[in-house]
Amino acid sequence: MTRQFSLAHLTVLDCAPPEMTYLAARAGYDFVSFRPIYMGLPGEPNYALAENKQMLRETKKAMFETGMKLLDIELAKVYDGVDPKSYLPAMEVAAELGGRHVLSSIWTDDRNYAIERFTEICELAKPFGLTIELEFVPIASVHNLDGALDVLNTVNQKNAGLMIDVHHFHRSKDNVEDLDAVPRDWFRYLHLCNAPGEIPAWKPEMTRVLREERSLLGEGGIDVGSIVNRIPNIPYSIELPNAKLAQELGNEEFARRCLQSAKDYLNTHPLTKQEVK
């Protein structure tokens, strides 16, 4: 079974897109996944390529020289007061770079508002040929599979899909069997990692782990195979931030270890239910 892998930006967040592209190519990835939508989070660099023309030129050059492809961009958040049109420049850049998908998540408790804004994001993405992939996040408003499916079934947008993050799925305490009922064409890529099996009860600790202390495949406490086995064979975007290990190894070696551990894990855990896509 042929598998493809992307390097998610959160794994090497201190690498700007050009540097990250060269790094991903040397480490053996098929794709990169950028964060060109600046969210103003503490300590997070601004990689808004639409505003930084020099960085955009350098990114194009890196992608041309390496043959690396862009899988997706993030994060088109839905929150109170959001203007979905503010995501248009990033969508344009994604399309210009040959990207396929835009990751989204919902951070407002107003369901009707969330439905309206998510629908608008989907509509804005259509002219660019981009899909909008909804990710449920345990610390967000839409925090589990049921919540995400409710949104997707309600908006009924052809370019909307579901992006499963293995860490988030485990933390949401969802049942893997429920993935069988999800339309197969809603799955376009997933976030692959591992993490400690114990689920933090304190939100700040949950946030800390998901942002900076996930585990290599085979080293955490999540039964990754049981989740991945329910999903078609789609690209795996390795989102595995681990600040300590990245500092010890350096970003490139860390990215290489992330990829090799994922390949080793998947090769030793037969995924019998997957469909080749």
Automatic annotation (TrEMBL):
Domain spans labelled Xylose isomerase-like TIM barrel: 23-244
PANTHER family reported in the protein's UniProt record: BLL3656 PROTEIN, HYDROXYPYRUVATE ISOMERASE
Taxonomic lineage from the root: Bacteria, Bacillati, Bacillota, Bacilli, Bacillales
This protein's record includes keyword Isomerase: yes
The protein's name in its UniProt record: Sugar phosphate isomerase/epimerase
Keyword Metal-binding: no
Entry GO MF terms: isomerase activity
Keywords: Isomerase
Organism: Alteribacillus bidgolensis
